[in-house]
Amino acid sequence: MASKQLRILVPVKRVIDYQIKPRVNKTGTAVETTGVKFSINPFDDIAVEEAVRIKEKNKSLVESIHAVSIGPAKAQDILRNCLAKGADTSTLIDSKDVVLEPLAVAKVLKQVVEKQNSNLVIMGKQAIDDDCNNTGQMLAGLLNWPQATNAAKVEFTDNGKVNVTREVDGGEEVVSASLPLVITTDLRLNVPRYVGLQNLMKAKKKPMEKLALKDFSNVDLEPRLKVLSVEEPQPRAPGVKVNSVDELVDKLKEAKVI
């Protein structure tokens, strides 16, 4: 087991609930968010669960778990959820209506890491709203830390190393690194626990620091990309039933597949 105490930072994002089918707004410029249910990003929920499991497995190993979210004031709801699951403290960075790109998010998180003196960042591999899958990698690059992405299993060894199993094409890959480290989580890492009302009530007593983007220096928030339009995907054409192999072959030839 690693002898160095862990100060874990878990960044989380408030997104449209994964069970909701997104709709394009009337102007065709973005996804409709009015009157839509929001919740914690599923990959981030897995990251919170993993941090809590590490602490439960060996309490002497983990000094603290700090959850942080960059988003609107309503994002404090998902932070309360993190606190109810077992995070010790949290920070809400109110972004108002500013939509941050991954590089800006990584730069803000870098300053949070330094402020919290964190030595392990566990975060979702991607958010289901933009599917960028690069904030963790950018954060590791800015911190000059090793990174283990798409984690399906995390193990701490007796010599102070962290072994991370990653799912790759055709099998699994195990990477080993020392702290400090950035880990991004994949779906098969764990199944997040259900949070009961009692724990949610207790979470209200846990500390939640509230900051604004202006509190972070030397971070360029100007977007590099501009969304020109958002469109619904084209409906899939209906399938065709065939009565024989010969008919199937004929259809495939018509489609110029064979």
Please tell me about this protein's structure.
This protein has one domain: 3-Layer(aba) Sandwich (Rossmann fold). It is 26% helix and 27% strand. The strands form two sheets. A nine-stranded mixed sheet has the order 9-8-7-10-6-1-4-5-11, with helices on both faces. It has a two-stranded antiparallel sheet with strand order 2-3. Strand 7 and strand 8 form a beta hairpin.
Strand-helix topology:
Elements: E1 6-12, E2 14-16, E3 38-40, H1 42-57, E4 62-71, H2 76-85, E5 89-94, H3 102-116, E6 120-124, H4 135-143, E7 147-156, E8 161-168, E9 171-178, E10 181-185, H5 197-203, E11 208-212, H6 245-254
Parallel strand pairs: 1-4, 1-6, 4-5, 5-11, 6-10, 7-10
Antiparallel strand pairs: 2-3, 7-8, 8-9
Helix pairs in contact: 2-5, 3-4
Main location: mitochondrion
GO molecular function: electron transfer activity
Keywords: Electron transport, Mitochondrion, Transport
Task: Give short descriptive properties of this protein.
single chain, 258 residues, alpha/beta, Rossmann fold, two-stranded antiparallel sheet, 11 strands, 26% helix
